[in-house]
Specification:
The structure is a homotrimer of 212-residue chains. Chain A has 212 residues and is mostly helical. Chain A has one domain. Helix content of chain A is 74%, strand content 0%. The first copy, chain A, contains eight helices and no strands. Chain A has helices at 2-25, 30-52, 58-61, 64-82, 88-112, 117-138, 152-168, 172-193. The model of chain A is unreliable at 206-212 (pLDDT under 50). Chain A binds chain B through residues 50-53, 113, 115-119, 122, 133, 137, 140-143, 145-147, 150-153, 156, 196-206, 210-212, and chain B through 18, 20-21, 23-33, 35-36, 38, 46, 50, 53, 55-57, 59-60, 62-63, 66-67, 77, 80, 85, 88, 91-92, 95, 137-140, 144, 148-149, 191, 194.
């Protein structure tokens, strides 16, 4: 499916840009920028494939993925250096779109491996968010995903929509489109109205000499 | 073996609870709580299976693992919110028991793959502790395991006991039981009397402009 | 190839020493020292093998790797405790040599799996640097590699030299030697003259209530 493949590469580029921007906030060198961009863009899918035993992974099968991630990273550095600042809202919308595409791809791949529904949803979410989690861990931050507006919840919803339509036998282009729109709608609404899940606050009442 | 399978699920629930509590200390949202719970409970076994090429991993083969982890996470949030505080000592003992079960399972799986003894011990320890290490890394803390009372050392001992009895041809239920008791005895003694391994203190005498 | 295998074990020992020293700076206990040493020495190759589906991984196939890493860790603790301080320059040179060997091994393994050139380079760099990145993440530091003198760039150059000579049909000992010398020359020059790649500084102008 050509248009879906184009969406996939678009998602790789967008995620690579968010990785490059985070690397820039940490004043990394140019190599660091490229590595963080590649990990952000391709880490989620690689983790999914290693756990599913789905080999070869995307960027080994097809070197266009690495090329797109590297070009997006270089483009980000050049853009920030010589041009206007990043358009934050545009980036958020693009990121939501990449998230939607990655979630659907992850769920698809998992269903092709005949996994239970719970595992298919986890694979969808993992494909969407694990690259960003790796980016944040390497940059020594608590992953944003656990703190910000409904992000992975949008992935769960989109993944469930895709699974439901898949088992109903809906034509493939339609189920992909509806699942992507589900993720996009939830994520954009969360951004627009600052929606979030309730937090679980637990005071650390543990005395300093405690065993745990 | 039904009773050992029940022990396994019990370990999953206990580890999920420790993950949910850590997520609460970091004020994560409900999705973050569930993710950290799942990673803490199932991350060690998943890492072991990816390295051993032992597919499909447990929670893909059987969706009860995810269900137990999610229910334990939700139960923790509800419990902390509406009921009494966590019984710290009870949790420590339950955690030691889960650690013992996971260590034995990891060693068993490794032996079934005909690995050297050193790798079987590492797989046992990895199954027992890697989930907690992932939890601590994502929550941006130096993993507790490297700082606290004899924890992984108990896993090493239990793993070696299991390997020894396995090669001696002891009946399976007996070797499992003795290995679990070994881990439990060492870990509970360490908790009770605050035992720890010697530390390796190295002052950082490196000048700030150093290359390393 | 016996001499190259000896180089490999030498690299394992050197990387284990850097891991043990970092664990000492964090005052870890003896178990933590051994774990960090093993992860630093063998983590890069293990990650590469899991992604390439190259099983069994080195330390499962051959238990000498774990033995060397553990002995190097114990030797480091004993040395620091009872003898003179670490010879920093000697360690840097040894580390550069280990980096060179690991990079060539990673590239070799990838080429045997018929991957695209971009993936072979990534596998070479990953084998050389991922163990150190894991060490730094577990010890809660932003990985040094992204901040210091040309390190991974040396791996990229060595990997490309090896790939070029490999496709030219140069005899194997010669291509390995030239690739190792490439990494060594670049890395030692970077250490000697404090060379570095340009940094990408991005001020964080994001307001605190931002969505991203």
């Amino acid at each position: 499916m050509t248009w879906f493949y184009a969406f996939d590469l678009f998602g790789v580029a967008v995620f690579a840009i968010t990785g490059a921007l985070m690397a820039g906030r940490k004043s990394m060198d140019l190599f660091g920028v490229m590595v963080i961009a590649i990990i952000t863009a391709l880490g989620g899918g690689t983790l999914r494939d290693a756990i599913l035993d789905n080999h070869p992974v995307s960027w080994i099968r097809n070197d266009l993925y690495i090329l797109v991630a590297v070009l997006a990273a270089i483009g980000t550095v050049v853009w920030v250096r010589f041009t206007r600042p990043i358009h934050e809202t545009g980036l958020l919308v693009a990121d939501a779109f990449g998230l939607a595409v990655f979630t659907v791809i992850g769920t698809q791949v998992a269903l092709q491996h005949d996994v239970p529904i719970s595992a298919a949803v986890i694979m969808g979410v993992m494909t969407g968010v694990a690259g960003g989690v790796m980016r944040d861990i390497i940059c020594n931050e608590i992953p944003l995903i656990f703190h910000k507006e409904i992000y992975a919840t949008a992935c769960i919803a989109g993944s469930l929509v895709y699974i439901g339509l898949y088992y109903l036998g809906i034509p493939e282009n339609l189920d992909i489109t509806l699942a992507i729109l589900t993720v996009l709608a939830i994520r954009l609404a969360a951004i627009r109205w600052h929606l979030g899940l309730p937090r679980f606050h637990l005071l650390d009442r543990t005395p300093p000499n405690d065993d745990q």
